[in-house]
Design goal:
The protein has 8 helices and 14 strands. By secondary structure, the protein is α/β, with parallel strands linked by helices. The protein has one domain: TIM Barrel (Alpha-Beta Barrel), CATH 3.20.20. Strands 1-2-3-4-5-6-7-13 form an 8-stranded parallel barrel, surrounded by 4 helices. Strands 8-11-10-9 form a 4-stranded antiparallel β-sheet, with no helix packed on it.
Amino acid sequence: MNSMQLTLGPNLYYWPRAQVFDFYAEVAAWPVAVVYLGEVVCSRRHEVKSADWLALGTELAQAGKQVVYSTQALLESASDLQGLRRLADAGGMIEANDLGAVEIARKAGVSFVAGATLNIYNGPALDWFAAQGATRWMPPLEAGRATVAAILAETSCAIETEVFGHGHLPLAFSARCFAARHYNLKKDDCQFKCLEHPDGMPVDTREGQPFLRINGIQTQSAACHSLYDDLAQLAGIDYLRISPQATHCREVVAAFAARLANADARSDLAALHPQGLVNGYWHGQAGIATQPNL
């Protein structure tokens, strides 16, 4: 049996409040050890507020989950910082996705997960974050198996490692809102169009090939990144993250849990993802590539 544990990453999309609460009511019974909560993408997404995330965290902790509160990757205002401080002051573990969050966690005396957007590319950098209070880290999403191994070989700290295992890759963030731009709206008057796209907005090339996925100020991969067929190559990895999606998330989690418990278990995840599954980054290739399990 594989000792690696599953985590459920923060919901990167904008869903109605009732859908969020219904989703996490189901998550309480899912085979994930850790649940990340909080708004990572856009501070204008107010269907669920800080107090709601903390309440959901209390319920999930009572269900036996470790709860981590994720912070925004792009802090743009004083109110963003205030929201971050509320999560840190609550005393729980946070996922720091910005250096400002690292400093706030350090001052609050809370441990944190060093998120992928902190861009940790070598052992000394990882040691520095561990000295600030990081107890877990997530490599940059483009870091493959060889890169992660090299970073861990360089580090002198004891720290848990988590990799992005399944979901549309959050490739970049921008101060501009691509969803608002698509609808010819201003960012501050976006009319919350992201609510109409619960799994983001697919973008094709002029030739009709899937290219990217728009999610507010975030750009994602069109295809779904998945390490389902690469679990045997994840020796030394403590946690595998599954990113929430509006459809089939329960089936995805169940498939990974079954595969971790029994290497011979098989599930056709490709059938649930019409734009395909990719794993190129993990193999040191272009992210859009699909490499066989070697």
